[in-house]
Amino acid sequence: MERVMTTERTTAETLAKTLRDAIIRFSRRVRQARPVGDLTFSQLSALTSLQLAGALTPRELADMERVQPPTMTKIVGKLEERGLVARTPHPTDGRQVILAATDEGRAVYAFNERARNEWLAVELERLTPEERETLARAAEIMQRVARG
Amino acid sequence: MERVMTTERTTAETLAKTLRDAIIRFSRRVRQARPVGDLTFSQLSALTSLQLAGALTPRELADMERVQPPTMTKIVGKLEERGLVARTPHPTDGRQVILAATDEGRAVYAFNERARNEWLAVELERLTPEERETLARAAEIMQRVARG
DNA sequence: CCATGCTCATTAGCTAAGCTAAGGACCGTG
DNA sequence: CACGGTCCTTAGCTTAGCTAATGAGCATGG
């Protein structure tokens, strides 16, 4: 029992390091392939959450995206500058605002949903179906871990 | 054939989005769990590469880490401030320097190799062996994709 | 030996995004 | 009404990503 736990622990630690390294390299590579002017990871992720949820308060969006509210204020500020997100007063609470994707934001979201020229999608296309399946499963596991 | 390719393309695009979302959430979560004062992802990754390679020029390290040289200059500067990395003149080229981990840097690396209290390692320990295997395989695939 | 083109690392300047602390407006409750 | 709590934003700081520029140094050809 002690030996089994030690083995699992060693495996988990090695995996933690391996995963961290892989993610940082992968993320950098994807970022480098992003055309200048396109939305950043954080912006696109926020827009996606907004689109899927319909409308959210900044607090809700920050929680969903796993950042603190001031960070989300900044990200949303950028999206708003680009006309992709709009704010309206909250119906019942004067402290709050409601964020929602604009028509243009929805168009950008839809475009990203089917970005045929995107470097990452092209690279993933070159993997075997098994490898893609592995990545899909890993993504699901990571989302679960991130939710805590 | 056309249908198969369309299916693969759709799958790859969906996977690209899924993977991006998972990675950004996961990365943020791991970052939030990092004790104040610990090395950042980028710093730890650079230190790891240095440790494993023994010694590198800034250019080599930047290439290995997939960033531009000025970025690596900054990251290394931080590591140097903390006494984890040292510079020596290049033996034959006056333009270059050699970077290597210090004794302290090696100790930090070794500590991170077996960080038993690290949040991520603890979380990974709670997964099934199959799930860990999936993540390990995914990490390998991501490294390969990142190398291009 | 000299001129030239190239390479190296760094600095400068900018952007983005992460955090905590603080401030002001607003809400809910006793 | 007073108070405690919540909301979003601003302020201030850090880290890290990029491109452009700079000055030192190297390699090569004449």
Automatic annotation (TrEMBL), chains A, B:
Pfam families: MarR (PF01047). InterPro entries: HTH-type_Bedaq_tolerance, HTH_MarR-typ, Tscrpt_reg_MarR-type_CS, WH-like_DNA-bd_sf, WH_DNA-bd_sf. The keyword Repeat does not apply. The keyword RNA-binding does not apply. It comes from the Bacteria. Keywords: DNA-binding, Transcription, Transcription regulation. Residues 12-144 form the HTH marR-type domain. This is MarR family transcriptional regulator.
